[in-house]
Each structure stands twice: as C-alpha cells, then as structure tokens.
Amino acid sequence: MSEKLNQLPTDDLFLLDRFINGNDDAFTIIYNRYVNQLMAFGMGWGFDKETLKDAIQDVFYKLYFNRKAFQGVSNPKFYLIRALKNRILDIQKSNMDTTDLTGLEFSVRPTVLDELIAEEERNKIEKQIELYLNLLTGRQREAVYLRFIEEMEYEEIAIILEMSAPAVRKLVCRAIARIRTEELSLVMLLCISRMIN
Amino acid sequence: MQISKEKYSSYKAVDFAKDIHFIGWRLSPDESNNKFWTDFQNEYPACKPEINQAIRVLQSTKLNQCSLSLEEKKEELTKLKVRIRNNKRKVILLRTSYVAAAACLIGALFVLQNLFIKDNQINDTIARGSKVIQLITDEKVSILPRNARITYRTDGSILISENNNKSQSITSGRKRNRLIVPRGQRSYLSMPDGSKIWVNSGTEVEFPALMDHNKREVNVSGEIYLEVSKDPKRPFTVKGDNFSVEVLGTKFNISSYPSDIVKRVVLLEGKVKVQSSNNQSLILDPNQMAAITKNNLTVHEVDAYNYISWKDGVLTLNSQPLSDVVDYLERYYGIEIESCAKADRMKCNGKLILTDSIEDVLNSIAMTMPVKIVKKENKIKICSTD
After folding, report:
1. Which residue does chain A place closest to B66, by CA atoms?
2. Chain A closest CA to B71's CA: distance in Å?
3. Residue of B132, B139, B216, B125 whose CA lies nearest to B171
4. Which of these ranges, A51-55, B141-145, B359-363, has the smallest mean pLDDT?
5. Average pLDDT in the B118-137 region?
6. What would the pLDDT profile of A5-28 be if each residue is shown by its tens digit?
7. What is the nearest CA distance from B361 to chain A, expressed in angstroms?
8. Minimum CA–CA partner of A172 in chain B
C-alpha cells in the first residue's frame, strides 16, 4: 500500500526507451523492478509460486522479441499486468475442460511487515484488512487492488477488466459505497460482540 | 461518515491500523473519508504522529506477499536469458536460408531507392550526422565555432561570437533559419525581441528570419530553455514534436528529443499553456512540469531548477538512477558510455558539474560512488565495485 508518490515518470520511461532501442541491461532492470508486483497480482488468482514464475517468464520472453509492443506505452506496469492476466487466463483454460472461467476470482491476503509490532497485533491488523476487502465482490476487489495498490488509471483498469472506464469508476464507487454501508452494520456487530463478551 | 471523532482521540498507531474506517481510508480514499481524517487531524493535532505511524504500518503491508529472493530472481533471469539465446539461434538459422532470396530483392530495391531520394538524403546526413554547429539560412549552410553564441539583430543580420569574443556577421535567410547543435555542444541564441534561448546538445531549432508583427514562432526538436520577453501583442509559440506551448512572457524549459517517449515542459516563472497534438491542454504554474506522451498529458510538481541547471553547466540529481545520468552524459558530450546493470541501479544525489572534459566528470562520479571507470579501445565503461 504505497502512498501515491509525487514521482516523475521519467525514470520508467527512460528505461523503456533504452529497452526499445535494444539495450539488454534495461530489460534486466525492468524484470527485476516488476517481478514481485507481478507475483503478487498472480497470487491473487490462486496460483502457486512455480506456475507463476513460469507464467511471468513467458510474459517477458514474449516481450523481448516484441519490443515494439512497448512503443508508446507510458506505464510498463500496466502492460505487464495485462499480459500476465492474459497468460493466467490461458493457463486456466488449458487446465480446465470447459472454458468456464467464472470460478476464477481475485482474492487478497495481507501481510503486515512492520517488525516493531507484536505478532499478535500484526495478525489482528491483517484480519481487519482482509475483512474490509472481503466485503467486496471479486471484480470489485480486483478493481480496488489495481486502483489503490497498483495506482493505475481507470482507463488502464478498464482494459484489464474488459469493461468501459466509466463502468470501472462506477464499480470502484459502488465498492466504496458498499463498504460504507457495511461499515455501519460492522460497527454494530463489533459493539454487540463486545457487549456479549 | 457519522462516526464521532472523539473516540479516536486516545488511539495509538496500532489501534488506527486495526480500525476498519482507517483501513478504508488508506485502501480506498475518496472525498468523504479524506475530509473526515483531515478534519480529525486538525482537531486533534496530538494524534498526528500516531496516525503517520499507522500510515507507515499499512504502507509496509503487502497484499498477496510473494516476493522472490535475490537468488530466485537471478535464477529466473538466467533461465529466461538462455531461452532467449536459444530462440535467437533459431532465428539466425532461419534467416540464413532466406538470405539468397532476400539479396536479390534488396539489390532491386536499392536501385529504386537511389533513383528517388537522392537530394533529401544528402541534406539530412549533413544536418544530423555532423559534429559541428550549423546555421542554415534558406539554402546556405554556415559552420559555426564550438559552443557559439548567436545574436539576432533587428535588421536581420546575425552576429556569431565565440567564447574568446571573436565574432563574425552573416546575413539572415529570407524565410526561416535553422540552428543545428550536435551532441556534445551547446549554443545560445538571442532574439531581436529580447528573448533568450539556451540550446542544449543534440537539438534543432527553427525560427523565422524576420519576426512577424503579430506572432513569434519557434520549432524545436531536442532541449531548449527560454526566457521570453513580454509582448502581449505578439504571443510566443513553441512547437515540439507532438505538442505546442503558448506564452506571453516567461521562463521555461522544453525537452522534446525524438528518441524520448516523454516530452517535457517545465515552468520556472510566469504561465504557459501546453497543448498536445490530440487536443488535450493545460495551464502550467511555476515549478510544474507537463509530461507529454503520445496519448497523455499530465502535470507533476517539480523543482524547476533541476530541469534547467544544464544551461549553467550543472546537472542536479535527486535519487535518479545512474542509468539516467549515463543517458544524459552520452547526449551532452556526444559519446557512448556502457554501464553494468548493478551500477545502473545506483541512485545519484547532488550536483554534477559538467565541465568541458568528460574525463573530469566521470572521475567525480567514480570518487563519490562505488563505481570504477574502465577505458578500453575508445570505449568507456562504468562498473560497480561493490
């Protein structure tokens, strides 16, 4: 959950530029920079680590021979996440007999890394974050994840979710609204459970 | 949100991090929760440190944590590179079998091409491959001394001066003049209306031979810094690759190199209007930067001087990776520098003085960072010593 930094896009774009012009070091840097974010996104789809490693390899392998695909791309992360999602859907299709993908749902599992906090407290924080995100549908969760964790634009998320940008905006707004109404009942629940205890 | 702020007044960082509303604000900020938490912090300023700490806790929280260790990354990359190399071999094998057929075709095309693009091509190679500053007035090409300063006079004549004050005068063209500054050199242009233009290396500037009475127009490919004199009757327009900037009187920098995906306009003083070729537009305030890509026009808050300091021969760095600095030096000095991946990732901070000698600049990098400079057969390489 990184704060939206006031970071310049130049760093990424210089890198892309070098990569498109045939610089292999730039390719390595791009790989190292994004592989963990891609792993995290892939985990959301319930795949194991080894499958994901291979899927990400496929994405970068394809990219290497198709550098031109990066021409005009302003956000490499968006391109990579979209490519990974397509690859994951392909794997899923070939694993299943039918092409029914409705069973595939994006999930989120938080891990608090701050070592200064006692483990017990860390677990509690993780539970609360999970509780919060589980109030959403799978699609809403994916949209919120891409929007607020990966800091993507609505237009970019729209392409990944295969829907229009205004529809994504609505989806995210609805998610926030839903959380808000649930919040109230949640607060009540918490109060009641405290009274009982 | 109808939650009382009071109950939060005694919260510690961990309590905030556990609070569902607080989590909601960090995970899905919107107007209403932003307002709630800003108001709260204003009413209970004593809570600010706890809140900041809670924000840090949540920031350090990973969703679907699954990071590869350095070893795993290395291993994956090696596998990937082997796969790539194997594929390349395949491609080469395939290619050789096509070579014979292709050779005939290329021969034929070459003859055709020579028939068509003779004139243009010659002109262009003179302009772009050159190592000297050129001023093209109509069809006439003048070769200018190193880092020449150019003064445009109101009568249309042009004064060229060198560092040591030697100067010569030439006549301006009738239509438009073109100034081409190669990689490794810089120039300075003073216009008849009092406007000043600093021209960075690898840049081409085109401007009218005589200033119109109702407009001022300059085209640029590369990087320039402008101090435009105020003249409300004659708006000043600068056109880049896929955008234009309209000004009245102001100081700003334009970077529009053809090889860069992002073109940048950074404003130091005054106000400018940036318009992209796909008809997006915005107004910049001082210390803002417009980043222009093929499909996008965005604003960023910056320290403008960092983008302008090149005109004073200084490169200001704030945690840029060394790879960016290397790119910059390559363009500025017109040389090629190789750098290893590890050095590429190092962050640079501080001021780098761009003296006349690239050796001095590289030495000062080697002195302040864990890298060494290796020179071999005219090639410069920066390697990490860590």
Report:
1. A40
2. 12
3. B139
4. B141-145
5. 54
6. 333 344 677 778 888 888 888 888
7. 21
8. B28
Q: Provide the whole-model pTM.
A: 0.47
ipTM of predicted assembly, 2 dp = 0.76
Q: How confident is the model at residue B335, as a pLDDT?
A: 81
pLDDT of A116 reads 79
CA distance A171 to A176: 9
Burial B163-196 (b: 16+ CB within 10 A, else e): eeeeeeeeebbeebbbbbbbbbbbbbbebeeebe
What domains are defined for chain A? 3-95 (1.10.1740.10), 119-196 (1.10.10)
Tokens of B48: 């600010």
> Which tokens belong to B191?
């216009």
Confidence (pLDDT) at B300: 87
Q: Which of B64, B294, B345 sits opposite A43 (nearest CB)?
A: B64
Give strand ranges (E) for chain A.
Answer: 110-111
- Report the sign of the C-alpha dihedral through residues B11, B17, B21, B27, in that order: positive
Q: Does B41 touch chain A (CB under 8 A)?
A: no
Q: Which two tokens stand for residue B36?
A: 């709630």
User: How many contacts (CB atoms, under 8 Å) link A and B?
Assistant: 189
The phi-psi region of residue B120 (left if phi > 0; otherwise alpha if psi is between -120 and 50; otherwise beta) is: alpha
Nearest CA-CA distance, residue B254 and chain A, Å: 14
* Interchain pair A112, B57: CB under 8 A: yes
- How many helices (H) and strands (E) chain A has is answered by 8, 1
Q: Facing residues of B78 across strands? A: none
